[in-house]
Amino acid sequence: MRKLVVAFVVLAGFAGLIGVGAVTMLLSGGGGRSGWASCSSNLGPWGDGAERGQRDAAKLSGESLGIVQRIIEIGQQRGLPPRAWQIAIQAGKTESNLANLYHGDRDSLGIFQMRPSMGWGTVQQVTDVDYQINKFYDVLLEVPGWEEMRPGTAAQKVERSAFPLRYHQWEPMAAHLVSAEGDISGITACDDLPSASVLGAQALQYAHAQLGKPYVWGAAGPDTFDCSGLTQQAWKAAGVEIPKYSQTQYFQGGVHVPLNQAQPGDLVFWGSGRDPKGIHHVALYLGDEKVLHAPQPGESVEIETLWDGGELLPMVVRPAADTPPQVAAVPAAGGEG
């Protein structure tokens, strides 16, 4: 929720004037890092994906780099696009730190922690590097629409993990590792960022129906909401699962997009000192510098002009479905009453 600061009451008028200017600067691209000259290299909460990807890649061991090279080589031999290599690298990094392990949870083994008891192959097979990589690709190719998914989502479809969001962490590193071998297309490219036009409209349609319902900390409907409970349920109504808490929604809720490229339905965040690690509030962007949100105790779900106060983050989050939405007629979101 928004921080309750006594001084805010005294300085509301002055802070409001400052906020308008700051919001305008952020929306026009003047605040923080703006614009993705190369989206595949600028992934990440601070637009620092290129630097983070390089740093993470530089920490890989010789064994890990050898496995990465083999993932790429086998992908090339099979005629698979770089997107597939990226997915396999993210899965391997998440499951084993890109090491050919001879241990794991229960009978999980190897780079991708494949389990012989679950039909992935014999112990000898699931610890053979080439077998594992080919098996991963075999299963990936059976996932409908994997090419259009965010790489971490596709990795989860193969791994069937109980922690589906953790694969996204290594997206910049994987994109960096394969970028020298081929163009990484899809959600990591500017032109193909998931559109909020269809799913965002569905999320906002739900959110508008909650206007006037009271704020209750920790609530996620149907009669009361806190800030992240409202955003979670709105996107759930659009068929997209995102985490519950505002900070987790920022780091694991979808694709990061500069605020000046925000579309209706995107998640807007506030954090102490504009620091993602200090996030305390989230809202749904409506367009025209307005947001719909559950403000704080004693208030109700409402529409408000986008404010800053020195805490508005320069990046928003655009939740993405596991598969592209079916384009269909969507009723227009309700008015601002």
UniProtKB/TrEMBL annotation:
It comes from the Bacteria. Residues 197-324 form the NlpC/P60 domain. InterPro entries: NLP_P60_dom, Papain-like_cys_pep_sf, PG_Endopeptidase_C40. One of its GO terms (biological process) is proteolysis. The keyword Lipid biosynthesis does not apply. Pfam families: NLPC_P60. One of its GO terms (molecular function) is cysteine-type peptidase activity. Keywords: Hydrolase, Protease, Thiol protease. Belongs to the peptidase C40 family. This is Cell wall-associated NlpC family hydrolase.
